[in-house]
Amino acid sequence: MKKMRIVLVVLFVCLCSEFLRGQDANGTAYFLPNLPQRVRFNPAYQPEYKVWVGLPALSGISVNYMNSAFGIDDLLVKEGKDSLYVDMDRMYKSLRKQNIIHFGNDISLLTVGVKINSWYATLDVTEKNDFLFRANKDLFSFLKRGNEPYLGKTMDIGDLGLQLNAYEEFAFGLSKKVNDKWTVGGRAKFLLGIANASLVNSKISIESAKDASSMKIRSKQDIRVSAPLTFEYEKDGEYINWDSFDVDTDDFSVSMVLNTKNPGFALDLGAEYQFNDKLKFYASVLDLGFIRWGAENYRFTQNATFDWQGGDLSNSIGKDSKSIDDVFDDLIDSLKDNFRLKEKQGAYTNMLRTQVYLGATYQLSKMVNVAGVAELTLLDKTFYPSLTASADVRLLRNVSAAVSYSVMPGNYVNVGAALTAKLGPVQLYASTDNVLAANYTSTQSLNGRFGINLLFGHRDKKKKEKEEEEPVMETVVVPVKKAPEVKKDTVVKDTIVKDTVVKDTATPVVKAEPVVISPVKEEMMVEEESPWYVIVGSFKNRQQAEHLKNKMIQLGFKDTQILHHGRELFRVSCGVFATHDEAWDKVFEIRRLYPKYKDVWAMKGI
Q1: Are strands 520-522 and 476-478 parallel, antiparallel or unpaired?
Q2: 508 prior amide bond cis, ω within 30
Q3: Going along 24-158, which residue ranges are E strands?
């Protein structure tokens, strides 16, 4: 019974503490550059490093709190330098219609990620704990005002909400870069439940007599529990003895942690879409799943009515009369006798806390991005939203930072920050959605995420960007325009020249077309079967090819397209022609009108 009292005290302290008011957002970490843990928010994300190893119990530790009830400074008000007093009116005004406290934490036990061509595979083992408690403001109204405003009426306090999940998660993820636009991914998660408590149905109402002489309290509860409980029955064998309730902590052993009798399954789904060179969209859905609780499971039900006539304190002053404590002890005993629980066993299923993310990033420069993300979290059958705007900067290749601002229902000031830093293969990271939570007495939000990773196989970014920006020079075939037929004694100095003049006494002067291209292979081509493409650039990176394609279309080359044919290079064609001569006439025209594209050439189709 002592342990149960400790649990109740802890729950009450959590309800009265302002760890977080609003939503347990993760908006700051969602776009943090060079953070492999982003796969947990969007399984389509592919880390920059080919191999990612998380240190056991250190690679990912996260804590999220949510409390829409009053804060410490709503309850305790400072008067003068040293005195504090309890301001119940201020505390009551801070309450919302629905008051929710939520706590969640994750500890990553094992993480491995490997990139294979366009695929990225991850294996993740995580221990998760999730707690939710909900109560209506009407309950606090009754405790503050009593039943005086409701004389002759029935007060519906509403239903209480309770969800507690503790489980192990074994996740296998795959993401694939489908093309230069789309990247998709998913994570299949197999769950093993450790413990659960769920308040499935709860109804409480109070009917007060007009003369305030009595109150009729009705309570209907349906509670599901999967945990190693110990309790005894009353003498009648039908109801449970309240004083016998206890939790057998010795049974929380390895066999309980790896309990295959509490299986579950969940899915994470995600996608990324590169709209253009600078704008990118993101979407993900997390924890679409359930756990089936089949071990150490109990169902406690209650459907009771209690007529309270009040407590008699009239004889509490005399030496031999009952004390005030004895009167209240009698009241508690009466409540225990009337609100007893029945018990029966049976497996049951409960759903996980689903999260939905929709976001976008815009690249201001090579080093700076701005982003926005909307998060919807399912808490007790209701979606709670949050909006986060962030800016991230890559200070160095191995150092990134981000700042954010989040807005949540009833909570409009949340300033976040994050940092990743890598020295050798070791990366450290930390993020929070509200640095102002350091002032814990008035904070309205708090969450934290930090860890240590081992990263291997990053390609040199400067070299990569240089290769992507510079077109690849190719050996091309350049045609030679035939000059008019000359006499045998005429001497031709060069076949391919700039402004070459062929002189002869009997032949007029002929001026060859100018040719400026490097390198050049001199050869005549006469085959006409396949179409000819006018190639204005060749690239190893498709995004660079797309950029040139858009430029050519703006210049009026409406038939511009990208040729790939499964090869390494992406070639940009600004025209297709049936014959060799037509294609090269276009080549010479482009060289003359657009000196910037002096390396344009023609290629026969495959």
Answers
A1: parallel
A2: no
A3: 51-54, 61-67, 76-79, 83-86, 98-116, 119-136, 154-158
Task: Say if CB 398 and CB 421 are below 8 A apart.
Answer: yes
Q: In this model, does residue 191 exceed pLDDT 60? A: yes
User: Helix crossing, 542-554 with 461-469: angle to 10°?
Assistant: 30
- DSSP category for residue 323: P
Residue type, 256: M
Q: CA 57 to CA 109: how far, in whole Å?
A: 5
Q: 192 near 260, Cβ under 8 Å?
A: yes
Q: Could you tell me the strand order of the sheet in which 601-604 lies?
A: 561-563, 570-577, 532-539, 601-604
Which of 105-119, 313-327, 376-390, 563-577 is modeled with the greatest confidence?
Answer: 105-119
Contact between residue 230 and residue 307 where contact means Cβ atoms under 8 Å apart: no
Q: For the range 74-81, what are the long-range contacts, defined as Cβ-Cβ under 8 Å and sequence gap of 24 or more?
A: 74/18, 75/16
Q: Which tens digits make up the pLDDT trace of 83-119?
A: 666 677 777 777 777 777 778 889 999 999 999 989 9
**Alpha carbon distance 223, 198 (integer Å):** 6
Query: 156, 138 in Cβ contact below 8 A?
Result: yes
Cα 494 from chain centroid (whole Å): 67
Phi, psi of 449 (to 5 degrees): -145, 130
pLDDT at 19: 31
Query: What is the rounded CA–CA span in Å between residue 567 and residue 378?
Result: 47
Long-range CB contact pairs, 543-548, < 8 A, 24+: 543/180, 543/274, 543/277, 543/468, 544/468, 544/469, 544/471, 544/570, 545/570, 545/571, 545/572, 546/180, 546/277, 547/277, 548/572
The secondary structure of 53-87 as a DSSP string is: EEPTTTS-EEEEEEE-S--HHHHEEEETTTEEEE-
How far CA 366 is from CA of 277, 359, 372, 465, 587, in Å, comes to 11, 20, 18, 10, 34
Tokens of 357: 């993310």
> pLDDT tens, 314-331?
444 444 555 556 666 666
DSSP for 488-556 reads: TT-----SS-SS-EEEETTEEEEEPPP---SSEEE------SS-EEEEEEEESSHHHHHHHHHHHHHTT
Which DSSP helix (H) or strand (E) runs through 91?
A: helix 88-93
Which region among 26-40, 308-322, 390-404, 409-423 has the lowest average model confidence (pLDDT)?
308-322
